Amino acid sequence: MSSAMIDLIVQATLDTLYMVAVSGVISALLGVPLGVLLYVTRPRQILTHPLLNQVLGMVTNIGRSIPFIILMVAIIPFTRLVVGTSIGTNAAIVPLTIAAIPFVARLVEGALNEIPPGLVEAAQSMGATPHQIITKVLLPEARGGIITGLTITVVTLVSYSAMAGAVGGGGLGDLGIRYGYNRFNPTVMLITVAILVIMVQGFQSLGDYLVRKSDRK
Amino acid sequence: MITLRNVSKTYHLASSRSRLPFVSRSSTPARTIEALKNVDLHVPGGEIHGVIGLSGAGKSTLIRCVNLLERPTSGSVEVDGQELTQLTAAELNQARHRIGMIFQHFNLLTTRNVYDNVALPLELMGMKRSTIRERVLPLLELTGLADKARQYPAQLSGGQKQRVAIARALASEPRVLLCDEATSALDPQTTGSILALLREINHKLGLTILLITHEMEVVKSICHRVSLISDGELVEEAEVGDFFTTPSTRLGREFLNDFLQLEPPKALVERLEEAPGEHTHPVVRLAFSGDAVSTPLISRLARECEVDVSILQAKVESIQERTLGLMIAELLGSPEQTRRAIDYLETHDLHVEVLGHVQRDD
């Protein structure tokens, strides 16, 4: 294999990591609060608000029901507005993030739902404010579940980012399609897939390790 | 210290209503459940007050109304001279710092170790770390957890977890401690040690304790006064010694008989008749406490009233500092003699209850 080809593979790997990292961090920063909000506005919760809960739930469901490949194309005007272009790794980050936020939110909501209601009741009996209940009880107690959710999200983002290659998003998926598929180069295709597999394995192991570390049960 | 006035709590259940759009919303009518009905309760400072009742009687709702975890539908809740139902959210949180609470399932944070669990209420109050340390360490000492400070709840036994919960509830130096079935998840021995700890706290700190339970044993061993709750109403309230000698309601007697396992033999119950006849003997349940316990009343009864006494069941219990004797006996004699015997017993401060009458064998 030529050294130019190797350079291309290295660059594509870095591009993929970059897309996954940036969209992962942003979607976590926005998805975790959204998940908390979905949970605490439920009926009989600390900040019950049925209308807000239903609106947020509906928006989240819409976000999750649009196939990623369609979402990517549909929001091109928005992507241009945000990053100034609709092609390349930066342009791919926008749809990746938008797809991941509701995904994270639902997983966080699920993790919070696992907390025994008695813990919240105990905190209320101590005079905790809703904000304190969220930061001192809900988030720490759900830490393991939230990390599990974020790991699933990152793994999903790796595969989504490969899909972004289909519309010129850069990264390993792009490489695999252009060199492996269009030019029928099985070696490149195999290497691309192998790197993706290793990447997913790595993220999953890291996530499992962090969950084990935070779990005191 | 705690005063509930005319407290009622009604739940509206509309759960079976369909929440899907385009589907008729009135599939079943809404139901209302009256969990508490006009409850009046007064617990003076320093007292340990027990509320006993069967499952679903409203115990949990009652104790949750004291710190407004459940907001009463109507009525007033006063704790330490402060009317809680009128407070703003911030004021209520302040007031809750003066009301500790422990739970059946302990409700400790699994991600915090023992020390940090006890420190939690103080963190919520915004205390400095050094001040928190000064408060937490003596509490760990008091509850016997000094060597467990760095352990996590998952490493502790049930009794130890409840001790952590007690230390946590005491951290904010409350005036009142609410115990929600605090020993129901524990084995009898551990229950004993937790109750001893609660008694010690009550004694040392002068803490007022309101506890709910379905176990007479808990009431017997630490309560000063007890209320009996049934179907959302307080049906009986008494000093514990009195409650164990002479409960005034049928439910009270059922609880007591169940606890003492003092029931007339089945064969006898089947023969019991409500009204006396010409050839019947009364079967009586005698409860005696105080001086009556040490007086040889039965033999005197036989001599002075000329009746024979056939003892069917008897039990002596010590309820805190008092001794309580209970007996089920058949009085054998003419109707005139047995009536005099019952009068004689009553003038000697025995509580006599005629359970029924059985036909004479002779």
Structural features, described:
- The complex is a heterodimer of chains A (217) and B (362).
- With 217 residues, chain A is mainly alpha-helical.
- Chain A is 82% helix and 0% strand.
- Chain A starts with a helix and ends with a helix.
- With 362 residues, chain B is of the alpha/beta class.
- Chain B folds into two domains: 2-12 and 29-251, 3-Layer(aba) Sandwich (Rossmann fold); 262-359, ACT domain (Alpha-Beta Plaits), CATH 3.30.70.
- Chain B has 13 helices and 14 strands.
- Chain B has helices spanning 59-66, 89-96, 114-124, 129-142, 158-170, 188-205, 216-222, 240-245, 250-260, 266-271, 291-294, 297-305, 335-347, and strands spanning 2-13, 31-43, 48-52, 74-79, 82-83, 99-102, 176-180, 208-213, 225-230, 233-239, 280-289, 308-319, 322-332, 351-359.
- In chain B, the strands form three sheets. Chain B has a six-stranded mixed beta sheet, sandwiched between helices. In chain B, strands 2-1-4-5 form a four-stranded antiparallel beta sheet, covered by helices on one side.
- In chain B, a hairpin with a 2-residue loop joins strand 4 and strand 5.
- Chain B is elongated, with a radius of gyration of 25 Å.
Which tags fit this structure?
heterodimer; A: 217 residues; mainly alpha; MetI-like fold; 10 helices; 82% helix; B: 362 residues; alpha/beta; Rossmann fold; Alpha-Beta Plaits; six-stranded mixed beta sheet; four-stranded antiparallel beta sheet; 13 helices; 14 strands; elongated; amino-acid transport (chain B); ABC_transporter-like_CS (chain B); nucleotide-binding (chain B); ATP-binding (chain B); cell membrane (chain B)
